[in-house]
Amino acid sequence: MARMQILLTNDDGWDAPGLAALKELAAPFGDIHTVAPRDPHSYAGHRVTTDVPLTLIETGPREYHLSGTPADCVRVALTSLLPRIDFVLSGINRGGNLGADIHSSGTVAAAREAALLGRHALAISQYVRRDLPLNWSQSVRLALPVVERILKGDREPRGYWNLNLPHVDADATPDTCHCEPDSQPLDVQFERTGNSFRYTGTYATRPRTSGCDVDCCFQGAITVSLLRA
């Protein structure tokens, strides 16, 4: 049986520690190819580039960075560079992509672009608390069984997944919650000084709906949401 061909990308940039963790996570499941943004594109959403050329640079065996957005990376890879890709993994993002974040997340946009182009995909994000150190090895350990089930399970047409990892103590064994994304808005607040507006909203105090992804992840569960392009 042919080995699965897996594309990796992210929105934190090609040299981000979360992408290194994703490479470790994906390695057991097939042949790994990486096309990641040259520069960070957090909160870029589903922005794509059509008005200027994109530059692709090889950084290692089966590894490239591109002068574009996460969605650009997926577009170039699946249409022009690596047309035999079976599955796209995007992440591991430093910071949660829960609920309303889905609309502004470059990490999730990469997975959505893959679904639009006929591939199945999974976006992975690591929620970050300020009171705990971030351990990428723990992120890999928590995500591994969930990723394995998704890669080996049934797949819906134009479906893609959004996985968020809680930030928990090293010895924690969090439950996995299959849930809907929360439709509540973020904590949107601004401080005005003359004509200048500085965002002062707090991620952790955002409204949340019981049983949806924000609430479950904030309470220490791994959240998985099936989305459709």
Summarize the topology.
Blueprint lengths: L4 E5 L7 H10 L4 E7 L18 E5 L2 E4 L3 H12 L5 E8 L6 H4 L1 H11 L3 E7 L9 H17 L6 E7 L10 E3 L11 E4 L2 E4 L13 H6 L3 E7 L1
Parallel strand pairs: 1-2, 1-5, 2-4, 5-6, 6-7, 8-11
Antiparallel strand pairs: 3-4, 7-11, 9-10
Mean of the pLDDT scores?
Answer: 96
Helical amount: 25-40%
What's the number of helices?
Answer: 6
Main sheet record: 9 strands, mixed
How many extended strands?
A: 11
Query: Which series of helices and strands comes N to C?
Result: EHEEEHEHHEHEEEEHE
Strand order of the largest sheet: 3-4-2-1-5-6-7-11-8
The gyration radius over C-alpha positions equals: 17 Å
CATH superfamily: Survival protein SurE-like phosphatase/nucleotidase
Low-confidence stretches: none
What does this 3D model show about the protein?
- The protein has 229 residues and is α/β, with parallel strands linked by helices.
- It has a single domain, classed as Stationary-phase Survival Protein Sure Homolog, Chain: A (3-Layer(aba) Sandwich), CATH 3.40.1210.10.
- 26% of the residues lie in helices and 27% in strands.
- It is built from six helices and eleven strands.
- The strands form two sheets. Strands 3-4-2-1-5-6-7-11-8 form a nine-stranded mixed sheet, with helices on both faces. A two-stranded antiparallel ribbon has the order 9-10.
- β9 and β10 form a beta hairpin.
- α1 packs across α5 and α2 runs parallel beside α4.
- The longest helix is centred in the middle third of the chain and has 17 residues.
- The mean pLDDT is 96.
